[in-house]
Write a structure and sequence with these properties.
Blueprint lengths: L31 H4 L10 H11 L9 H11 L9 H11 L2 H4 L3 H13 L2 E11 L9 E4 L3 E4 L15 E13 L11 E4 L3 E12 L2 E8 L20 E3 L6 H4 L12
Parallel strand pairs: 1-8, 4-7
Antiparallel strand pairs: 1-4, 2-6, 3-5, 4-5, 6-7
């Protein structure tokens, strides 16, 4: 399950506000090849993967540079070892907030976040999963400290649920998600990312039976995302659109052609 493992890491969240990552915003925007040089010990074939991502994302939309678009694509690329890809290693470092673990990521973070901030904000219903029953950890408000990979159509990962195992399903009403479908290794996953430091309110919980628990969450309009707000506002976009319940494919196929009726 290399391509979808990041959708099942909800059980890794600390659920607490963590201090901001210092110094990443001071990094100059580099090419992706330069930004990943320090990641080679952490990510298998990272430089080769970066070059591949750059080639695939040579003509990006939404005013992204090819390096920014490739940084998103690299985040979604699988590795020959499940835990040696960018998404898992980056989120481990973010959730630990150990300075020595984050240093290698600063240049990539600057590029990745610069790209995400240029994308239109999605508001709608998205889904995320956790292995095991973590519903008891969700009582009132919480914070997700990593980049939270969610899906825009809950049917996408149904076949990935192993019968007999226990899962927690998060149904999230988001207001500031970032759709990366056009930049992903697997477009059919309809991936939507919630930024680090996203605040969520617990609405209700359900036991669906057959080992499935469900937690309903509402993204709160917090004043800031500690990790990302230090970036220049010049790299942001004020576009926002509302997707249907399942983030229908026509709305997601081309971010450059968002129907005016969906803009808010």
């Amino acid at each position: 399950m290399y391509a979808t493992e990041r959708f099942f890491d909800g059980n890794q969240e600390t659920l607490q506000e963590l201090p901001p990552v210092e110094d990443y915003e001071k990094q100059p925007l580099m090419t992706l090849e330069e930004a990943v040089k320090q990641l080679e010990p952490l990510i298998n074939n990272c430089e080769v993967m970066a070059l591949t991502a750059k080639r695939i994302m040579s003509h990006p939309a939404c005013d992204l540079t090819s390096d920014e678009a490739a940084a998103i694509h690299l985040y979604t690329m699988p590795s020959s070892k499940v835990d040696r890809n960018v998404s898992i290693q980056l989120n481990r470092a973010l959730r630990s907030r150990k300075g020595n673990e984050l240093v290698s990521w600063l240049s990539y973070l600057q590029l990745f976040i610069s790209a995400l901030k240029k994308l239109p904000s999605v508001n709608g219903t998205i889904w995320r999963y956790a292995r095991g029953d973590v519903s008891a950890d969700y009582q009132n408000d919480c914070v997700w400290s990593g980049f939270s990979s969610c899906i825009g159509a809950k049917s996408v990962l149904v076949g990935s649920l192993d019968k007999g195992n226990v899962y927690t399903i998060f149904e999230i009403e988001c207001i500031d998600g970032k759709s990366i479908r056009n930049y992903s290794e697997c477009e059919n996953e309809d991936e939507v990312i919630l930024m680090p430091g996203t605040h969520l309110k617990v609405i209700k919980k359900e036991d669906l039976g057959n080992g499935l628990k469900k937690v309903y969450l509402q993204e709160e309009n917090s004043q800031q995302h500690p990790l990302i707000d230090s970036l220049s506002s010049s790299s942001t976009t004020k576009e926002k659109y509302r997707a249907d319940q399942d983030f229908n494919a026509t709305a997601m196929q081309s971010i450059r052609k968002i129907p005016s009726a969906q803009l808010s």
